Amino acid sequence: MQRPGSGSEFPPVGEFAPFPVTRRVNSSNAVAMDDDMENGAGTYQERPRTFPAVRSKSHTPWIFQMLTRINARVLFVLLMLIFVVVFYIGASASPIIVFVFTICIISLFFSVFLTKWVLAKDEGPPEMSQISDAIRDGAEGFFRTQYGTISKMAFILAIVILTIYLFRASTPQQEAAGLGRSTSAYITVASFLLGALCSGIAGYVGMWVSVRANVRVSSAARRSAREALQIAVRAGGFSAIVVVGMAVFGVAILYATFYVWLGVDTPGSMKVTDLPLLLVGYGFGASFVALFAQLGGGIYTKAADVGADLVGKVEQGIPEDDPRNPAVIADLVGDNVGDCAARGADLFESIAAEIINPSGFILFPLVVHSFDLVVSSVGILSIRGTRDPGLTAPIEDPMKILQKGYSVTIVLAVLTFGVSTRWLLYTEQAPSAWLNFALCGLVGIMTAYAFVWITKYYTDYKHEPVRTLALSSATGHGTNIIAGVSLGLESTALPVLVISVAIISAYWLGHTSGLVDDSGNPTGGLFGTAVATMGMLSTAAYVLTMDMFGPIADNAGGIVEMSQQPESVREITDVLDAVGNTTKATTKGFAIGSAALASFLLFSAYMDEVASFAHVPFKQVDIAVPEVFIGGLLGSMLIFLFSAWACSAVGRTAQEVVNEVRRQFIERPGIMDYKEKPDYGRCVAIVASASLKEMIKPGALAIISPMVIGFLFRILGYFTSQPLLGAKVVASMLMFATVAGILMALFLNTAGGAWDNAKKYIETGALGGKGSDCHKAAVTGDTVGDPFKDTAGPSLHVLIKMLATITLLKCKEPALKHRKLQLTP
């Protein structure tokens, strides 16, 4: 490992151009810690402290740098021209697209309002803003390097996709529509690259706002808890509105462009129900970036967190986010690149994949998510600050405030979903079908609420499971681990029951809607499950807001601790941080539930694709066939192996951090007495370099496995006269991987969140409080749960949908012909 700034792959870090940070003193009296401080002249508490500038140049993406250099009037004219062209294309495709564009643009202005409101808040005293600058520099530097690596891999994969599509046979439908192999190939690759680009921008937006809002939340916490909560929520709301709006806007533009360019629904051209599968590449590009963002960011943040906790809290007995801990800056940087940037890319992928659903309809989910932007904006604005309660007022429960906003969003989502189904899904063939589909959406909304409640019950320390876990820490580290594992295993039961009821209910409602196909057979069952998925994600923007709230509050607590603010301020940020842990866990549970519903639909779509291509019915997967059973075993193994590699990557990197922090405490004994300065940049460089290297192996496993398995068993099927063997084995692999992945992700996310909040509960003063043996055992549990909840768990639900998308890309037929519903366009 090279020293910071010595030509390592990561941008120059730790070139310690120090800036002064003082403890509650005027910045004009601040004197940097120089040689006299290192020689022991004075005490650290009485002298200014310094933190590193973790970059030597701006890491703002080049596209944003170019936009800022353009004259304001020229930029305005260009934007107006773009809007005119976009609206013209949308109007040529459908008036509904114009409605979607209008809502997206209004949401853009709303996000600008939120940005100005948040940035107008003060950054507090100099010691706060200077610490925030170090966090921002580290986050932007790592983001630039990480996404540079991801973009290179994306271009390589784009070439592979282009090659495959250029050499595959064209289908009769493509030829009838005038789509040759080259046209289909370039459309798929362009969609893939656009999806990857938009997913990366979504990640940057999530990180951009978090590194600017954290210090403002810290400053507001000096005045009141409610103001700090409002700033964190509105900052998260900005990111959520931009991410969801960009996902909707991007798919709408692609749909309208291809609709006009290909002359969809004109005689001799492609049917509108075939159009979504031309956009599968867009969803795959988003999944690709989201997977590596989750892996890289998760490895970064949890390796730094584990290293900081094990040495700082357990061995040295210093508080969390203490400025004496050499890994503290890396830990705070990780919150932004792991939780904010990665989650933004993750939810963008979820919404894009759900809009491009294989039921053949895109306009309906576009309208649903347009209303999502509206109702979530109302929910965000419903959380208001108080006049001036001051620090002496009792701290309100932030979770209750967030839940009230979510309840407002849920009620409005139910109403708007009913309006959407009546508007777009009414048909004279079955006049009451729209009501059945509205009920399917209600099933999805209720499922989302149930997942939020269940996850909150298992991860909030106000409830029995977490308090029981905390109590187990009183008897040692081992019993804490046992209790945490058992809690995580138990927590899979209720979500699975909820998912099962949701799938059966939605399928039955769709099946009995009165819609029939050309042969008179009832249809609409799978479309009912698709509508339920849309319903579950109809409040996605508000759920992402709650998720972004977590890392912003966590960073705010770190800034308060490092700048040594009064204990009353730290109490406020501790409460917000604990609630943030719960909201992050609930968002992950929400994402897993939506992935389960979406994967069921994608799995059915894959079987239909194979049947259409082979002209042979493919309705069942018989696991009694040895090869098919082996495919299921391989799919389950894939989940466990992927999780193992992700967790071991965190472990290996954390070991390097632990060794480095120990080395600094030994070689610089003055650190503990505030007489020497920790080398923060060294830990930043270690986790940055290692996370970029470690994310490759599990990510490659996810991409290559289904293709290799399908290819090998296809060859075996050729020699054993089983032409569909490869497809059946891949179907079995996908089915078992989905089931195992859902259960594993639920276990990892809930156990990790419970361990974290058990530690937070003890830190409130329960069971001996900070520094007690009980607290040290809880810290051990928290470090075990860190890679569970922030690396392996979040990556798994992206993997589940990515596997299904890869299988659809492998198919050669954009079919689903028998599932076309006679609904109004």
Written account of the structure:
With 825 residues, the chain is an all-alpha fold. The chain has one domain (94-385, 395-672, 702-809). It is 73% helix and 1% strand. The protein has a two-stranded antiparallel sheet with strand order 1-2. Helix 3 runs antiparallel to helix 4 (95-119). The termini are far apart. Residues 1-58 and 811-825 have low confidence and may be disordered. It comes from Ananas comosus (Pineapple). Its EC number is 7.1.3.1. InterPro entries: PPase-energised_H-pump. Its main location: membrane. GO terms for molecular function: diphosphate hydrolysis-driven proton transmembrane transporter activity; inorganic diphosphate phosphatase activity.
Layout of helices and strands, plus pairs?
Blueprint: E1 19-21, H1 35-38, E2 49-51, H2 62-69, H3 72-93, H4 95-119, H5 126-167, H6 172-176, H7 181-221, H8 225-261, H9 280-315, H10 328-355, H11 363-381, H12 398-424, H13 433-459, H14 464-472, H15 477-490, H16 493-511, H17 525-536, H18 540-562, H19 567-614, H20 626-667, H21 680-694, H22 696-719, H23 725-763, H24 773-810
Antiparallel strand pairs: 1-2
Helix pairs in contact: 3-4, 3-8, 4-8, 4-11, 5-7, 5-9, 5-10, 7-8, 7-9, 7-10, 7-18, 8-10, 8-11, 8-18, 9-10, 9-20, 9-21, 9-24, 10-18, 10-19, 10-21, 10-24, 11-12, 11-18, 12-13, 13-16, 13-17, 13-19, 14-15, 14-23, 15-23, 15-24, 16-17, 16-19, 17-19, 18-19, 19-23, 19-24, 20-21, 20-22, ...
Pfam families: H_PPase
Organism: Ananas comosus (Pineapple)
Transmembrane segments: 70-90, 96-119, 150-167, 187-211, 231-255, 275-293, 406-426, 432-454, 492-510, 522-544, 590-608, 628-647, 699-719, 725-748
